Amino acid sequence: MISKNHRLSDFLTWASAIAIMVALYMVFVYAPTERTMGHVQRIFYFHVSTAWVGFFAFFVTLVASMAYLGKGTRQWDIVALSSVEVGLTFITMTIVTGSIWAKVAWNVWWTWDPRLTTSTILWLIYASYLMLRSAIEEEARRARFAAVHGIVGFVSVPITFMAIRWWRTIHPVIFESQGFNLTTPMLTTLLFCIGAFTLLYFALLVHRVRLEQLADEVEQLKHKLGR
User: Fold this and answer.
1) Of 2, 133, 149, whose CA–CA distance to 69 is shortest?
2) SS3 of 65, please?
């Protein structure tokens, strides 16, 4: 089992590394320069991809949290925790790249636009998930509380996604008639970047899960040795 896990993590690591390098080539070479915003528009490919991965990561946490409450298996708790940590990293990247893009497009680093506001709330909800875990010492109780948080907190994901469709906003809509007019190379680049970052998510998730498993094994050894 250990050798299989190592083979999977090695495969995902190398595959994601190659995919990210190809994605970089497509973003900076293959994709044409947008006529209105110029080269700064290229950050769009990273901004959208990291947002997608962040949302997907929190969906995985939702599923893993429900599975934990249903089965009480530590492995599901590990997956939920690991996916929150990875997802929060990607959402942080989304907010940072969005701010850089906003500075050029809107001449401000930040504005309380509905999408930006809901994204901030989303980030705070999942940051508080990690704070909750660190505040509870008893393992089973910590896992139960975190699972409920992971389930309820997911409500913020569809709200964040739909914010630009439900409320008046200056944030652009991408895949609709009033959104970006993406050429075929642009769309191809975007979809490849989403796939590459998704692959990177799985690579990071596998490594993070394994790290938590090793931490559990260390704690078990300490307990056996009476430390």
Assistant:
1) 149
2) helix
Token output for 67: 């599975």
**pLDDT 10s digits, 107-118:** 888 777 888 888
Query: Distance between CA atoms of 72 and 140, rounded to whole angstroms?
Result: 8
Q: How many CA atoms lie within 13 A of 116 on its CB side?
A: 18
The answer, yes or no, to whether residue 177 has pLDDT greater than 50, is no
The third-level CATH classification (topology) of the domain covering 2-225 is Four Helix Bundle (Hemerythrin (Met), subunit A) (1.20.120)
Contact 126, 153 (CB under 8 A): yes
**Residue spans per domain, the chain:** 2-225
Q: Are 126 and 58 in contact (CB under 8 A)?
A: yes
- Tell me the angle at which helices 74-105 and 184-224 cross, rounded to the nearest 10 degrees: 140
